[in-house]
Design brief:
Helices cover 70% and strands 3% of the residues. It is mostly helical. It has a domain of 64 residues.
Length: 443
C-alpha cells in the first residue's frame, strides 16, 4: 500500500474514534476528510462532489418525510392497538407481534430509533402486566426492528443496494431481507425461551384489564388514563392494555396506510424511484391533512442523512485512490475466501458495537466485495455475514436502541438492565459473525 492509502485508512480510523469518543457526527468528519485526501491525491473538488450520494439523499429525505407524516397521523399507534386486540387472550403471541411489528415498521422505511421509541412503551407495560422480563421484551422489540433494516425500501437496505450496484454487482435485496428476518427471528426465539417467555405459554389475559404504573421516560404513550406515583417516586402514568374494541381509523390514518401500500407496490412491482415516490406521497398527504411542515421537518433524522453523505463520499475517494482495492487484495490472500469473510465479519461486529451501523457498513462492505468478483463467492456469501454482524450488536446499551430501552425502564431497574444489555451485546459480537457466517458461507 502507498503512503497515501495508509494515511486514508488512518484518517477513517481517527474519524471513527472521534465520533465515538466525543459524540460527533461521522459524516461531518468524513466530508472534509474526503476533500483533504482527494487534494493530496491530485483529485479536483468536482471529483469529490461527484461521489456525493445524491440519489441516496433524495431517498432518505422522501422516506423519512413520509414517515414524519405517518407519525403525525398516529397511524402506527392505531396499527399496534389493532394487532394487540387481535391477540385477545393469547398473550404468548404479544412478544412475537412486537417482533414482526418492528420488522414491518422499519421495513417500510421508518427510522429504526423511532420504531424502538414507539414500541418499547408497549413492551414495558406488557412485561409489567404479566410479570415477564423487560429484558426479554426489549430484545424482541430491538431485534424485530433490526430484522427490518434490510428490506428493499428501508434505509439500510437501499444503502447496501447502492453500494453493490456502484460496484457492478447484483444486490438480491429480497433474499438479503429474508435472511435478516430469519437470523433475527432465531435470536429472538432463543431469547424468548431463555429469559422467561415460557411462562407466557400458560398465561391468559384476565377478563378485566389490570392497570399498572409506568414511567414514561422519553416515551410517547397515547393511551394514558391518569397520574399516580411510581416506585421511583416520580410521576407515573397509569396505563391499560388496549381496549377490547378498536375504532375505525380516521381518514388521515386510512390515507397514510394506503400511501405505505402504494410505496411498497411502486418499488416492488413498478421499479419506481423510492425516494421520489415517497416524497410525492408525503407532500400530497401534507397538503391535504397537515398544511404545515414546521412540525414535520425537525422529525426527520438529519444526522443520519449527513452520516450517509459523508461516509459514501469518503468511500468514493478511497475507491478512486485504490485503498479499498488494496485491502480487498489482502483479504483475498487468505487461504480461503471464507476465512476472509469471517475475519471481516468479526471486525464489523466489534466496530459496530461502538458506532453507527451505517457508517460501519459503508466502510466494511466495500472491503469484501473484491472477493465476489475474484474469489468465486456469491454476493450473499459476503453481504449476508457482514450486514448481520453489523446489526446483531445493536441491542448494546452503547447504541441508540439500547439507550432507548434504558430510557423506558425505571431508575431502579436501569443498572441491572444495563449490565444485561452489555453482556448481550458482547455475546452477539461473537455469536453474530459465527452464526451468519455459518448460514451464508458453509450452508
Amino acid at each position: 500500500m502507498s503512503a497515501l492509502q495508509i494515511l486514508s485508512l488512518a484518517v477513517i480510523v481517527a474519524a471513527f474514534t472521534a465520533a465515538t469518543k466525543w459524540q460527533l457526527n461521522l459524516g461531518i468528519l468524513l466530508l472534509p476528510a474526503a476533500f483533504v485526501i482527494a487534494s493530496l491525491a491530485g483529485l479536483s473538488a468536482d471529483e469529490v462532489v461527484s461521489g456525493f450520494p445524491s440519489e441516496m439523499f433524495v431517498l432518505l429525505v422522501g422516506v423519512t418525510f413520509l414517515f414524519a407524516v405517518v407519525e403525525a397521523s398516529r397511524t402506527m399507534d392505531y396499527i399496534m392497538d389493532f394487532l394487540l386486540k387481535l391477540v385477545g387472550n393469547r398473550v404468548v403471541l404479544v412478544p412475537f407481534i412486537l417482533f414482526f411489528a418492528g420488522a414491518f415498521t422499519t421495513g417500510v422505511g421508518t427510522y429504526s430509533a423511532a420504531v424502538v421509541a414507539l414500541l418499547m412503551p408497549v413492551a414495558v407495560r406488557f412485561a409489567r402486566q404479566f410479570g415477564v422480563s423487560i429484558f426479554m421484551m426489549a430484545l424482541m422489540v430491538v431485534h424485530g426492528v433490526l430484522a427490518g433494516l434490510f428490506s428493499p425500501i428501508a434505509i439500510d437496505g437501499v444503502f447496501t443496494d447502492r453500494l453493490l450496484k456502484d460496484a457492478g454487482l447484483e444486490s438480491h435485496p429480497a433474499q438479503l431481507f429474508a435472511c435478516h428476518v430469519v437470523v433475527h427471528g432465531i435470536i429472538c426465539a432463543a431469547a424468548f425461551f431463555l429469559f422467561g417467555g415460557r411462562k407466557l405459554i400458560r398465561a391468559r389475559r384476565s377478563s378485566g384489564d389490570r392497570e399498572v404504573p409506568f414511567d414514561p421516560v422519553d416515551a410517547h404513550e397515547p393511551s394514558s388514563t391518569g397520574q399516580s406515583a411510581g416506585p421511583s417516586g416520580a410521576a407515573s402514568t397509569t396505563i391499560t392494555l388496549p381496549a377490547k374494541t378498536v375504532g375505525r381509523p380516521t381518514v388521515y390514518q386510512g390515507c397514510t396506510m394506503a400511501a405505505i401500500v402504494l410505496l411498497v407496490l411502486s418499488a416492488v412491482l413498478l421499479d419506481l424511484d423510492v425516494g421520489f415516490v415517497a416524497l410525492t406521497l408525503a407532500v400530497v398527504l401534507a397538503l391535504i391533512f397537515q398544511r404545515n411542515s414546521e412540525d414535520l421537518i425537525p422529525k426527520m433524522p438529519w444526522p443520519v442523512m449527513v452520516l450517509v453523505a459523508g461516509v459514501l463520499s469518503y468511500i468514493a475517494v478511497l475507491t478512486e485512490i485504490g485503498t479499498l482495492g488494496a485491502i480487498g487484495d489482502q483479504l483475498y490472500n487468505f487461504e480461503s475466501p471464507a476465512i476472509g469473510i469471517l475475519v471481516l465479519s468479526f471486525i464489523t461486529a466489534i466496530t459496530s458495537a461502538f458506532t453507527s451501523t451505517l457508517g460501519v457498513l459503508g466502510a466494511s462492505l466495500p472491503l469484501g466485495l473484491p472477493m465476489v468478483s475474484d474469489g468465486g463467492v456469491s454476493v450473499l456469501n459476503v453481504v449476508g455475514p457482514v450486514t448481520i454482524s453489523a446489526t446483531v450488536v445493536d441491542a448494546s446499551p452503547m447504541g441508540i436502541a439500547g439507550a432507548l430501552v434504558l430510557a423506558n425502564a425505571r431508575p431502579d431497574e436501569r443498572a441491572a438492565l444495563f449490565r444485561r444489555l452489555a453482556l448481550w451485546g458482547i455475546s452477539m459480537v461473537i455469536i453474530g459473525p459465527l452464526l451468519s457466517w455459518g448460514i451464508f458461507t458453509l450452508l
